[in-house]
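Re: duplicated header lines in exported structure tokens

Our pipeline writes sequence and tokens for each protein into one text file. With two proteins the header for the second block appears twice in some exports. Here is an export where it did not happen, for reference. First protein block:
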Amino acid sequence: MSTTPVVAPVDGRAVSLQDVPDPVFSQAMVGHGAAIDPARGVIDAVAPVSGKVLKLLPHAYLVMTPDNVGVLVHLGLDTVGLDGQGFIAHVSQGDDVTAGQVVITYDVLWVEARGLNPIVPVVVMDEREPGNIVLSDAVTAGANIVSGARLFTANK
């Protein structure tokens, strides 16, 4: 069994995935994890784990660990329709990154000004067993978390 610590990609208030107002995430259709209501402003979103950037979109990225644990970070809800506005990538698809390395700069206020929810779901792709995700105390308490702090641990 592998144990993968997953760090918060942004500062903000840690929230349970079921509290994300989008059924794709709240019903764990893509996998289990947690979310962060991000700090307001222009913020850096970092890699939640070390590994290879398997997919990089302006508003989302997927990092695959050497143990084949894929962690998706989605910056805001319905942000795909922004055509990349409000986001600046600092890495390329296929790059190796370390946990805590800046991946995308995210203009939270710009996204909010367009009427979109800026929440940041962080999920282990295709994880069907909620028991394999051990949430941090910040998530269970709905407390503030800093970028780079443990958000949850994924056990496979």
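Second protein block, exported in the same file:
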Amino acid sequence: MVLLMWLMIFRPQQKRAKELDTMLKALRAGDKIVTSSGIVGVVLSLKDKTISIRSNDTKLEILKSAVAEVTERGGDSSPS
């Protein structure tokens, strides 16, 4: 029963946490992100625990833990 519980609950949670940690370590200035509250912005600078982002004409400083996903890498955009 304990093994089944570990396989169904704890293992997927550990995997998601590891993926999130890897994503946060790979963040760079210029990456387009979405926060857990739904704010879409571009990373301007990174500090130890916070990130400065630009969303439209607004500059925000958010916690790294608020980043839900990276939608576009800064170097991936093709020249126009």
